[in-house]
Amino acid sequence: MTREEEVKKRRTFAIISHPDAGKTTITEQLLKFGGAIREAGTVKARKTGNFAKSDWMDIEKERGISVTSSVMQFDYAGKRVNILDTPGHEDFSEDTYRTLMAVDAAVMIIDSAKGIEAQTKKLFQVVKHRGIPVFTFINKLDRDGREPLDLLSELEEILGIASVPMNWPIGMGANFQGLYDFTNQRVEVYQGEERFLPFAEIEGHELTRNPFFTQAVEDAELLADAGNPFDEEAVLKGQLTPVFFGSALTSFGVQTFLDSFLTYAPEPHSHKTVDGDDVDPLNPDFSGFVFKIQANMDPRHRDRIAFVRVVSGEFERGMDVNLLRTGKKVKLSNVTQFMAESRENVENAVAGDIIGVYDTGTYQVGDTMATGKLKTAFEPLPTFTPEIFMRVQAKNVMKQKSFQKGIEQLVQEGAIQLYKSYSTGDLMLGAVGQLQFEVFKDRMEREYSSEIVMTPMGNKTVRWIKPEQLDEKMSSSRNILARDRFDHPLFLFENDFAMRWFVDKYPDVELMEEFSV
Ligand code: G4P
């Protein structure tokens, strides 16, 4: 197979959802269809720590790094699928957002009883900003949930994205009969001997006498008249999300979803450099960028894995690449590719693939590596506005030097955000998830021998202001006036109420969600 054919069969995506919507369950189903795992329950058992299988990646066993499920690769229907994990729960961090910078599409899973939840909304904003396609799977139809039409309205109202159903549920919960699949012109039957009933053969079938079937047909007709038409271009631009219904737990509708998703999901995209040029996935020179660095939480080891999204060319073991930030050459010899159950050392990886580079401190998040004529770095990854904050200080006041050095480097690396209060000079750390503080504390101790004390400040709302509007008198007990690491002024508001109060009091001061001059 030529490299072009290899690239064209890549489909790289992430699943965005709120904890408990069914991400793990669906991931397992997908891996099963791809033959990457034999039994459902494998990924799940890993998640809960009950996994006893002996052949997980050596690196994970030896060093305690949980990387296996970070990237899962399998072949299905002529495509090579890469699923990137977006950790939730206590593992939520800026890396979760950055992972979305490395995919070409997103799958959004929604619990039909709960609708759109907080974490889904946050992740969706990032995906929307990138303008990549989003495919929606509404899960748990085997249970009673909300009205499907309500759920579609929520997509529009809460997320601001138009939707087009690809199939429609016939009943739900105890009355769930299956899916009215107008895309494939068939009914997918939930229980019964035959799984698929083509529309052409449906006349006279007992299902047609079921009131939920009649309702589904009516809804489908209504949608055909009044809903959005399917528009592939709008889907690819992220303006329209195709919606699928199903039940991951009973593996119902998941394969239908996968087939359709792989039909419409895009191939690897080109990537912009800081000069505004696009690097094409078929460019023969190798290039890639680091979107996440997974530090090892095991105190006996300092090593880390840098996750690299391949943008162009072909990775070959042992190749030399230029690390554009430092201008130095590095050899990519200790590199891992990820599979669901076993470690496969990458022999070659092309655009769309993810490789894991063993790292002893060489790489930073956002780094570009490239060969040949590619000399310009990719656009930097965005930073994500933190929501939780901690005051930080050195435990031992005599050890300021290592404390300052550690903070400076880890902040520059993108591990955490740092702010300094104008009035007290206090240092404050900002993160999107608790995990970032833990990793930060751990790395300060191990890598910089600096013990730190962190005091929780809780949630805050960050807003930047224009430097010329800066006035220390605007600071009050409900906000903290601070500067970020670039010296840009900002307020940390106690809550939205405090922010509104400020807006009323200082209507002329512009509050910005991102700093700009
Ligand atoms: P997550 O990764 O998004 O956090 O969700 P996960 O797949 O772990 O699923 C969360 C819970 O929802 C699990 O139940 C799972 O079995 C259940 N679930 C997932 N898909 C469906 C579905 O289609 N229908 C129904 N009825 N339930 C579903 P749990 O009780 O937390 O775990 P377990 O005891 O079943 O292992």
What is the strand and helix layout of this fold?
Elements: H1 3-8, E1 10-17, H2 23-33, H3 42-47, H4 58-63, E2 71-76, E3 79-84, H5 94-99, E4 105-111, H6 118-130, E5 134-139, H7 148-159, E6 162-165, E7 168-170, E8 178-181, E9 186-189, E10 196-198, H8 211-226, H9 232-236, E11 240-245, H10 254-264, E12 271-272, E13 278-279, E14 287-295, E15 304-312, E16 314-316, E17 319-323, E18 328-332, E19 335-338, E20 343-344, E21 348-350, E22 354-359, E23 368-370, E24 388-394, H11 400-413, E25 417-421, E26 427-431, H12 434-448, E27 452-459, E28 461-464, E29 479-483, E30 489-493, H13 496-505
Parallel strand pairs: 1-3, 1-4, 4-5, 5-11, 6-11
Antiparallel strand pairs: 2-3, 7-8, 8-9, 9-10, 12-13, 14-15, 14-23, 15-22, 16-21, 17-18, 17-23, 19-20, 19-22, 24-26, 24-27, 25-26, 25-29, 28-30, 29-30
Mean pLDDT, rounded to whole units?
Answer: 89
Helix content: 25-40%
Bound molecules: guanosine-5',3'-tetraphosphate
> Beta fraction of the residues?
25-35%
Shape descriptor reads globular
Report on the architecture of this protein.
This protein has 517 residues and is an alpha+beta fold. The chain folds into three domains: 3-66 and 90-266, 3-Layer(aba) Sandwich (Rossmann fold); 272-370, P-loop containing nucleotide triphosphate hydrolases (Rossmann fold), CATH 3.40.50; 388-505, Alpha-Beta Plaits (2-Layer Sandwich). It has 13 helices and 30 strands. The strands form six sheets. It has an eight-stranded antiparallel beta sheet. It has a seven-stranded mixed beta sheet with strand order 2-3-1-4-5-11-6, sandwiched between helices. Strand 9 and strand 10 form a beta hairpin. The termini are far apart. Guanosine-5',3'-tetraphosphate is lined by residues 17, 19-25, 44, 139-140, 142-143, 247-249. Guanosine-5',3'-tetraphosphate binds at residues 17, 19-25, 44, 139-140, 142-143, 247-249. It is found in: Cytoplasm. Pfam families: EF-G_D2, GTP_EFTU, RF3_C. One of its GO terms (molecular function) is GTPase activity. One of its GO terms (biological process) is regulation of translational termination.
